[in-house]
Design brief:
- It is a single chain.
- The protein is α/β, with parallel strands linked by helices and 342 residues long.
- It folds into two domains: 127 residues, NAD(P)-binding Rossmann-like Domain (Rossmann fold); 201 residues, Hexapeptide repeat proteins (UDP N-Acetylglucosamine Acyltransferase, domain 1), CATH 2.160.10.10.
- Strands 9, 11, 13, 15, 17, 18, 20, 21, 23, 24, 25 and 26 form a twelve-stranded mixed sheet that branches. It has an eight-stranded mixed sheet with strand order 8-7-10-12-14-16-19-22, with no helix packed on it.
- Strand 1, helix 3 and strand 2 form a beta-alpha-beta unit.
- The longest helix has 11 residues.
- The relative contact order is 0.06.
Length: 342
């Protein structure tokens, strides 16, 4: 608290507050952000001249509506932009990105920082977020390497029908030749992700979306007709697909639900992300969904339109149904058609 008070005094917050009181007299105000900065201001400065009708923050959930915090009415995070209010005052130290986001999502709202930083600070923020500058800064930490059949490494090669998008930093993508892409393969990473694709893979159409600190490993001799592998909105989890697998059309493999389910009373999260493990020589039928926590053992078959959402350990089985269960045992499969196999 003492450090924040020094911070506020160094930036002459008392003068800033007087200007706001004058500018916003007879105006309705919502405070956005109730972290340490707001707490320091609320405890040491008089905000009574501002007509504050409520406070909001990402920590305030739908069930908090009607309650109070710091003596103010709580407005849930998902409703603050629906209220008819004159101004939203942002009470965070680094407010620039939040200010931009509110202006984009709620263009009818007037937004002001409770504590205004210098024009130089804003210029530096804007400069860092210019697309080509941000991309240039991140490119120094992202690596894409193609491993040739002879072991030679080629960095940042152009591969036909392959699109790689680095949205953040510290990502590593390693692809081994030979690799065949018939239609397109799209890979995107946010921060601190790792993708490794072994040799002799064939992809007709595939999309791999990784979030933060995710790993995706795909073994050799694996084919994908059409699949989406989704790890966005997740942190620190793995999707492992073994060698000699065959993945059919419209298959979805995901290690996350994408959004949060939590206990209403305790706020405990109920649906954390979990790894997905697919063994060697697994055939996954069309329109199958493989969800977080799923484990499919080697030499297995997953029937079309199945939903796999738990661990299976017994090999040489057929899994099918919603949710999937074992329907056959002591089987295996071959890529050749039945007449050719015979």
């Amino acid at each position: 608290m003492q450090e924040l008070m020094k911070y506020l005094k160094a930036r002459n917050f008392e003068s800033r507050l007087k200007k706001l009181n004058k500018k916003l007299s007879e105006k309705t105000v919502i405070i956005y952000g109730t972290g340490k900065l707001f707490q320091a201001i609320q405890a040491n400065y008089d905000l009574s001249k501002l007509n504050i009708i409520g406070i909001t923050d990402i920590k305030y959930l739908p069930e908090d509506e009607g309650k109070e915090d710091f003596g103010y009415k709580i407005i849930p995070y998902n409703k603050f932009n629906l209220l008819n209010v004159d101004y939203i005052l942002i009470a965070t130290q680094n407010y620039f990105s939040l200010e931009d986001r509110i202006k984009k999502t709620s263009p009818d709202k007037k937004v002001l920082p409770l504590l205004k930083l210098s024009n130089l600070s804003k210029f530096i923020y804007k400069l860092k977020n210019v697309k080509f500058i941000k991309k240039l800064l991140n490119s120094k930490t992202n690596t894409f390497v193609l491993i040739k059949a002879n072991g030679q490494k080629i960095y940042n090669p152009k591969i036909k029908k392959l699109e790689i998008k680095f949205w953040g930093k510290n990502n590593y993508i390693e692809i081994h030749e030979p690799l065949t892409i018939r239609d397109n393969l799209y890979i995107s990473c946010v921060d601190n992700c790792e993708v490794k694709i072994e040799k002799n893979n064939f992809y007709k159409k595939a999309m791999f979306l990784l979030g933060n600190s995710n790993k995706l490993n795909i073994g050799s001799n694996t084919t994908i007709e059409e699949a989406s592998i989704l790890q966005r909105n997740s942190f620190n989890n793995n999707i492992i697909i073994g060698s000699d697998c065959q993945i059919s059309y419209e298959v979805i493999i995901r290690s996350t639900d994408g959004h949060t389910i939590y206990d209403k009373n305790s706020k405990v999260v109920r649906n954390y992300t979990k790894d997905v493990i697919i063994g060697d020589h697994v055939w996954i039928g069309a329109r199958t969904m493989v969800l977080k926590g799923a484990q499919i053992p080697s030499n297995s078959i997953v029937g079309a339109c199945a939903l796999v959402n738990k661990e299976f350990t017994e090999e040489n089985t057929v899994l099918a149904g919603i949710p999937a269960k074992i329907i056959k045992r002591n089987v295996n499969w071959d890529r050749r058609g039945p007449h050719e196999f015979k």
